[in-house]
Amino acid sequence: xxxxxxxxxxxxxxxxxxxxxxxxxxxxxxxxxxxxxxxxxxxxxxxxxxxxxxxxxxxxxxxxxxxxxxxxxxxxxxxxxxxxxxxxxxxxxxxxxxxxxxxxxxxxxxxxxxxxxxxxxxxxxxxxxxxxxxxxxxxxxxxxxxxxxxxxxxxxxxxxxxxxxxxxxxxxxxxxxxxxxxxxxxxxxxxxxxxxxxxxxxxxxxxxxxxxxxxxxxxxxxxxxxxxxxxxxxxxxxxxxxxxxxxxxxxxxxxxxxxxxxxxxxxxxxx
Length: 271
Prior knowledge:
There is one protein chain. The chain is α/β, with parallel strands linked by helices. The chain is built from eight helices and nine strands. It has one domain: Rossmann fold (3-Layer(aba) Sandwich), CATH 3.40.50.1820. Strands 1-9-8-7-6-4-5-3-2 form a nine-stranded mixed beta sheet, with helices on both faces.
């Protein structure tokens, strides 16, 4: 499915927020069993927001953006609707660590979620992974390249859904910068989600901003990503382009789509 949405989705978002219940938040939880240095100890942490009386709740793991060089963990207000547990992840940043190490942090955080979220009332069969920009890239990488989660004893196909918001599908521009390439010089290697396209990964909702306003041709990356997933036979992948929203602004109208995706897939699982 391919779709174009107008700003009306913001109205849905306000309705969801209006019905949000109370959430308790536990902050600064280390997601690595062993850290090798102070920087990893500081950065490899996450926050968990849990609805009151949570039991068997779907879980959304959220990765922040920032080009792999900046940003910090967040629990987006729009996702705190009292129906889902939300996990906001911090990860190490370039240039202190490589892109591969950053993706490994993302995998370690998702593995922690599978191994621990039931203690908070989360359903381990309903763990959804999402993120904006760099976070969208991390979402796609750990969902498509199974080797990252395999390292932690987790099958990536146990993820209930992947929802990248305007994430790179080609080799990330920070990786290309480290290779001495310009941000407008596209490449695809093993660090690119497109390299790992396969038909049997988790259901996907790919969201992009307006093609005329997005960063570095990001919409076209997403469209090609979607097309290749369809061509290899993926049965459940959808692409939305949010008209009128640029790279940074597209996240807010994207949140209601993420929540609807989770609710719809949970409803289908219950049938």
